[in-house]
Write the structure tokens for this entry.
Amino acid sequence: MSQSISYTYSDSNGVAAAPRRKVAIVGAGLVGSLAALNFAQMGNEVDLYEYREDIRKAELVQGRSINLALSQRGRKALAAVGLEEKVLATAIPMRGRMLHNVRGRTSIVLYDPCTKQCLYSVGRKQLNELLLNACDAFPNISCHFEHKLATANIAEGQMQFRRPNEPQLISASADLIVGCDGAFSTLRQQLVRTPGFNYSQEYISTGYLELCIPAKDGEFQMPPNYLHIWPRDSFMMIALPNQDKSFTVTLSMPFELFAELKTHQQLLDFFRQHYVDALPLIGEQQLIKDFFKTRPQHLLSVKCKPYHFADKALILGDAAHAMVPYYGQGMNAGMEDLTLLSSILSQQLPLDVALAQFTESRWRDAYAICDLAMYNYVEMRDLTKRWSFRCRKWLDTTLFRLFPRRWVPLYNSVSFSSMPYSQCIANRQWQDKLLGRLMTFTLLASLIAGGAIYARRLR
Ligand SMILES: Cc1cc2nc3c(=O)[nH]c(=O)nc-3n(C[C@H](O)[C@H](O)[C@H](O)COP(=O)(O)OP(=O)(O)OC[C@H]3O[C@@H](n4cnc5c(N)ncnc54)[C@H](O)[C@@H]3O)c2cc1C
Ligand SMILES: *[C@@H]1O[C@H](CO)[C@@H](O)[C@H](O)[C@H]1NC(C)=O
Ligand SMILES: *[C@@H]1O[C@H](CO)[C@@H](O)[C@H](O)[C@H]1NC(C)=O
């Protein structure tokens, strides 16, 4: 269903060949390695610099494979480099949310009962490895691991890298520097200094910690094809299935609450009270070990603009728009950056014009998904439990079934379509207004009808 993009570089059919550029990509995470593939596909010389060692050679951390939900936008971007099928082959489909209440009873809310689309749970490490392997297959991508960008002079296209155990910085240059170096991007720090660059960041007062529900007798301990959620108002827990039949569990709650759980007993009591069904699956000893092993992590949302500097620098992915993880869209949005960028670059405009067009076409949607992610944080931990939410969900699903083209619910437009994020919000506002009017109309109509019946009785 996702079409791949093809490019023309030859002069033979009258189209001017895209100039070959030396492109440096900083960060070989999910977005950086995909960016390398895109730029190489367009005929550039690519140097991919990564701070960490090659994850394919890194030591395996048993049973702690961190996973992500892949949806339409990420799939489309992977399809453009011919990797969608390969990724989906080992991914685990999740057809809906399985909600666990305080007594351990479960209920299912399907994501898409109408057209049956689903999210896919993918291992971060596996996906990153697959992308890096694809990079190796390109003669024009050179990977440089253990190269940490220390400083950059973006106007000059100069970079300095730090290597482990080497006192001297290493210099390198490029025509274009692309920062895919994550939420704490070093390249973005350079952009922050340029005049006219808007930047804001927000830490939420909630932290997260990862736990694990291991496989038992070689089998999943819960139904695998769901995203499991334990909504508890001000906090929550979620679990996504892994290839090895374990689940990665993410416990999200305010830092003050984390701080209150100081002893083993307090932790176990807390789980017995709130996550009674999950406790035996995680295992008491394992829970204690995993919980006290690490501190809860902070979550950051970043908005900035523009994403480029002349024809010299560009930031993509979390470097450009980090978001809280509650819509499962961070990676998907970062990958979608590349779908948009590729389509703009294929128009063969001067590079500075193309990059400016990228910023202009992207920032509203990036801001929108940051806002949506913040909103979904409330929805997941709180609203999913409420009747009003379930009623709305039912109404949305019914209308979607009746008018599949006209009525696409918010969650579906974000996760299962490529509708620009800002339009997803506008679409939802239009739906809310219509439903509001419909309710008023129904209320008025019943009042009038009631009044008429009453009046008739009086006569
Ligand atoms: C708990 C959690 C759950 C999430 N779940 C989902 C989900 O279900 N679905 C989804 O779509 N998204 C999810 N996300 C978001 C997703 O993880 C990010 O959006 C995604 O990883 C962004 O990719 P990236 O390549 O831009 O950045 P990163 O993955 O952060 O990669 C950045 C890379 O740059 C390297 N680097 C950093 N600094 C330097 C430097 N100075 N020099 C050289 N290299 C450097 C890093 O080592 C790293 O390899 C989740 C995030 C969190 C925290
Ligand atoms: C890779 O770069 C070389 C020059 O170094 C060039 O001749 C070749 O066409 C490039 N290959 C691709 C696929 O762009
Ligand atoms: C920065 O933000 C201000 C205030 O919101 C806005 O007026 C201005 O246009 C923004 N600048 C850019 C480059 O977007």
Notes: The longest strand covers residues 206-213. The mean pLDDT is 91. Residues 43, 139-140 surround 2-acetamido-2-deoxy-beta-D-glucopyranose (ligand 2) (CB under 6 Å).
